[in-house]
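Table S7 (text form). Paired inputs.
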Amino acid sequence: MHTMVKGANIGLSSLSSDVGSVTVGLSWSSSTGEGDADVSVLLLNGTGKVRSDADFYFYNNPVADDGSVQLLGKTPTPDGSEDRISFDLEAVPSDVERIVVAASRYDGAHFGELDDVCLSLVDGSGEGLVRFPVEDAGVVSAFIFGEFYRRAGDWKFRAVGQGYHSGLVGLATDFGVDIEDDTEEAGTDTGPEPGPEQEAASGPVPPVAMGPAHVPPPRAAGAAPAGTGELPAGTDGPRKPARPRTAKKKVTLPKTTKKSLAENESWRTARLFPVTALKSDRERETRATSVLLSVMAQVPEFGRRLTAGFGAPAGRMETFTEVSLPHGDSPRRPDGVVRVERAGKLWTALIETKTNGNPLKSEQVQAYVDIAARRGYEAVITLSNDVALEGSPLVDIKIDGRRKHKVALWHLSWAEVAHQAQMLIRHEGVGNAAHAWLLHELLHYLQHDNSGCHGFQNMGSAWVPVRNGIDNETLCQGDARATEVTESWERLIRQVCLRLGGELGRKVLPVQRAKRGTDPRTRRAEMADRLCLEGRLHAELRMEDTQGILAITADLRTGKLRTSIELPAAEQGYPLTRAKRLIRQLAAAPADLHIETLVAGPGAGPRGTLERLRPEPADILPKDGAEIVGFRLSLFKGMGTGRGSAESGFIRSVDEAVDRFHAQVITHLDRRGAHRVQAEEPVADR
């Protein structure tokens, strides 16, 4: 992999022959695990401006109609998460000269607070091409990582590394995006920070390479300087923040369903994909594959979303099932084939499907990889209820290094398929109502008890022995069964994130507090040792637009699940006012909610249930006057004993605990922080 420095550029064709489709990853870490940012992409013409607002891709406009750009969202990594963007460079319109890749932070945060800020670039087969570590991002809220630009008919990449104090709005405005604002225009920033490497960048640099506004743009009359937080004279209250406009409206399902015309409740709605006739695993695999591939071909947004991360170009997609391919004396029949045509070129992937708890077979997948290599196919995609983990492959295969043609092996879980369908039909929208209805039918099929496509549902054969070993204190560090349980726990947590994120329409990601660069197998071995010593499994989830981190702890000694969140204390305000405001925010929360005051220094603060604290909020205040640094809110629930997802299973108990905590606690907290107080307080609280 080629490591770049700020200002350097390189031709993509010199790095790989498979650069028609590439994927950019933006990653970072923070000491608290809470650092986050939103990625964005701008397509620019020869003047250094967008052709229209539709050329600006961000969280509200993530996919280009022609498939040239697709924001794939965050993917968990051993050190945190990576935001990925797929580019089909062959689909980029000819009048687009540059593609800018940027990210922005919010709520006063800046990139200088993050660690290990880095851009990576991989080709269509998943081979790493470029790595651009950012050494010092600075006190900026928006940052241009890099850009693609055309030279002599080929695409090149430049490591830009330039910051904007003015955030996403200022960056977008400088590149010609029309910003929607409900008030008069206020101040804008002075543009990007100047960089010493700007003049030294190798190769020709367009006049606007580092941002088009080298001269401070004019402010509206009376506007306050950017970043001061002051309001122009005569302004009534805070301005509503400007928001980039979305490209166009899309169709989503209505939140409430129409009243049924059925004569009685026993009548069943006719379904496009029935599941009642399925009797065997083979029938389930065949039906699930056919249902999924047919919807992928008919709903371009959905098909593109599932294949873009695997290096597929944007183009006409066709899907096939039960295809016979020669392989020695007996032909092989993969469950499905996906083909995408773009500019006369074909991208082909073989599909191997499993449903219920059936595992993938190494011998079967190996045969498909060998066939794909001989026939010049690009990928083999495995699809099952299991969740792949980095450093722990679901199947072991051998790659013949003597072959020039590389075949990428990818895995897709049924939980990921359901997540993407939910995001499109319930939150982001698709092109028309028929596509939304098709996705709804697919989702109904996947969620039916008889489909066999329910996602990760079994903690594995080691679950019961490990629980028993913890109970009788015979489980020793280094036991391979403990590592197996921690891997299953990590799979379950990732699936919880997918399910919850799909329901909420927001990013939900696992937090990894291990040091960046730690080998994932080493990290899991350390988790397994802690499980042996403490008898607990622990995980943390970061939810977009939610203050604090949702923690989940499964105590195998006591058989209880604890879901909790910590809220930092407000910097200003009297202690009693903070306590009263928190209790008011939690008026509709469960009476058995535990509230603990977090205090500075050693020792624990007071604690109690919400039922006891409602009439006496002062009981949560430290008697010795210790400084309050925050509050911890917790709910407890009995833990399922079975290893599966049945009613008494552990997996279902985790799902129910997370859902209950989110619905009954987190939703009642003001997103700006339930603990915050008004500037003026009643005298009685002082």
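Next pair, protein 2 of 2.
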Amino acid sequence: MNPEQPDHVQRTLADLDARLGRITAEVAEVRSGLAALGRQARPVQPDQPVQPLQPPHPAPGAPRPGPRPAYAQPPGPGRDSVWRAGAPQTGGPALGGYRPAGPVDGPHPQPGPAPAGPGWQRRTAQARPRRAPRFTAATVIAAIGGSVMLAGIAFLLVVAIQAGLFPPIARVVAAAVLALVLVGLGLWLQSRHEATPERPINPGALALVGTGLAAAMLDVIACTTLYQWIPVPAAYMFVGGLALAGMALAQRWSSGLLACLVSAGTMVLAPFISTGVELPVFLVILAIATAVLGAELGIAVRVVWSVFPAPVLAGYLTQTHLHDRGEQIALIVAALVFAAVGVGVAWVDSVRRRPAPENAALVVVPTAVPLLLLSGLVLLRPGWPVGVVLAAAYLTVAVLAGRRAHESGPVLLSAVSGVVGSALLFGAWVELGGREMTSLALTLSATGYLVAAGLWGRRWVDWVAGIGAAIALIVYLVVNEPFLALDERLAVRELTYWDVVAAFAVTVLAVAATWWASRRVPRQASRVVMAGAVVALLAFSVMVVAAGVVIGDLAGAARNGFLVAHLVVTVLWISCAAWLVLTPRPRLSDARRIGFVLGSLALAKLLFLDLATLPGLFRVLSFIAVGAVMLAVAVRYRRDTEPSGSGSPT
């Protein structure tokens, strides 16, 4: 017998005993970890802090285990990785931080955050509630069924009248009873519905309640407009109360479908029941109730309450001559309130809510459409002050919202309100009265927008300024006809002091446009300034000719004023060209080039226009003045461009 064999057997037994102790300790540790995880599922009391998990010590007398052998840790994702994947991320003891790499009874490592392994991602995805689909087959069927039911109720109230099937009281009572039954049945059905994440609200209940409320409002409209059983103010209150109740229930159920059924169903079918002036007022009341309580229920609800009443109200405003004074006032008030609600809801959604809903400011556009017609109403003549006041209100909203340039919602609100206010302003000038006055107002407005665009730096202001400048220039060319300044007979007969003022305004507009465009495209500033200078000089020349005709007419010699003005224009052009060519160290790099262009234009005017238009003495003076200026420029230009050391030989 080998004497070393007993020692080898003892060492093997001791090793097995140590392994058994480690296994026992690890099993106890797993049990403690599972218990700790179970305690984490319940809220932890603040006065009972969670103690860190400590590994149990081996029993007294047992051999102290040594370091874990290398073969005790299996390679790859083993038990330890499974514990880390299933451990919680925060709060309480976590087994993911324990890596048994040292002695069992040694210091236990601190638990750390659980790494995001595949197992952890899988459990998180399973624990996250799945969003319910916005539209299901049951929702679509319920919406179609509710629409068909509403159409049937409208036919009951309208077709029965034409066919004489039921007396009026029977029709109204039948519609009211049906509306009550539908609403009650829908509420009862929802009370028995077991809410789930996929179906929090029963689609059938939505359809029944929405159909019933819309039917009740249609019944009230019929009682008011067809039978005159309910006074109009009381009917407005009834419809508003029913609409508020429907929107409150839609807000409670978080259902845009219910809001659309109540508002859209009534708005679409109400014109089949009533065609009186009360109809747009009913639609505006319904739109206000929907906007106040249903603005957060999705973009479809915004489209319904802002788009549907706008064409109806605008159509009635175009036919105000068919209504009396009281009805016209009702339509005007409805249009103003409708627009004010649109701006108010857009302001709250875009500026006050965090985060701002996308496209919430677009409701400003349809709600402002009826306002474009107010300036043309006979009751508001002259209507342009009303348009100016409304435009100022929208532009004020645009400026206030534009100060919050760091947020997307106010930026969109600023752009939309600014464009609407600009359209109202230009529409007001159209109703100003007088072609010349309208042209001048458009030019001044475009100049103001160009200055604001250059100072403020907002994209919508740039667009409005560019479009406004183009419109103002086109209107000026059509209304004032500046080409008359080229013909002596037409200029003497047609040009007035309005042409002087309009030409001066266009000159200022050209200067403002040049400054604005040079700031927007600094790389092309030289070309922009060149083009702007030519346009401004042309407009100023028209002003000089018109002023000469007006002054000459006051003196009894309008023709002589025309001739003197053209002489002044020719000298003015050549003088400006000489100044640009000879200016030392010009701020504009291409100033000399612009001077040569203006000089060429002055020479062309002298040869092709003055030679054919001016009589003998004026023609002589024009040629002498232009020749003298060009000779002076040639002498000075030669002296400035010659090298300082050059000279003629003696």
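The radius of gyration is 43 Å.
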